[in-house]
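Lab intake sheet, docking and co-folding queue.

SAMPLE TYPE: protein with bound small molecule
LIGAND NAME: zinc ion
LIGAND FORMAT: SMILES
REQUESTED OUTPUT: full 3D complex as structure tokens
PRIORITY: normal
SUBMITTED BY: R.K., bench team

The fields below were copied directly from the construct record.
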Amino acid sequence: MYATDPDELQAARAQLVTYSARLLDDGLAVGSAGNMSVRVGDVMAITPSGIGYSDMQPADVCLVTPAGTELTDEDGRGNRETPSTETPMHLAIYAATGAQAVVHTHSPEVIALSASRDELPAIHYQITGLGGPVRVAPYVRFGSDGLAAAAVEALDGRQAVILRNHGAVTYGRDLAQAYDRALLLEWLARTYRLALCYGEPSILSAEALDEVAAEAKRRRYGERRQP
Ligand SMILES: [Zn+2]
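RESULT FIELD (auto-filled):
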């Protein structure tokens, strides 16, 4: 028996459909590529495999246990669709991090970068929102446990990873934050590519990034203390 609030579950399914449509609108994926998930209580709600985002309904969103078993839904019917092929990667990220939502994109800027670089460097201080320079994980076939392991390893200390010749993954405390991070990552990759047009760009040092992270933390702390 898995503790899952039915209302929370329905909200998560609807939210996943809404954000999946945004994935296309924002140019982060085409067709049915990419996938996303939300942790709801003890289970993971994840987008189905092979359904175009424009056709997806909340009831198509699948439920999977932390062990990777498909859950029967509240009416005992089970998932009506097949969970995303990247279910092992999503589960591995929940197991290894404090993620409450995971977004996987096939966005062009990060894919282009992944084919020729080992890391997205700190071209802009906002990269601290992803934990620092973003690593490119080695290429492993889609849907494999090997890809899940490579993604988790490259996520160490980060909230984003780029998958070589494949795409990117971000996570957050909720779907909105994970999705915003996917947009930020794509923007940073584009900005880096533009900077390369001028020659060798200036990259922020680890000390400069530490200073930014400390200041951001201080300001958030100050806001919380305000009535
Ligand atoms: Zn993919």
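REVIEWER NOTE: The radius of gyration is 18 Å.
SIGN-OFF: pending second check by T.M.
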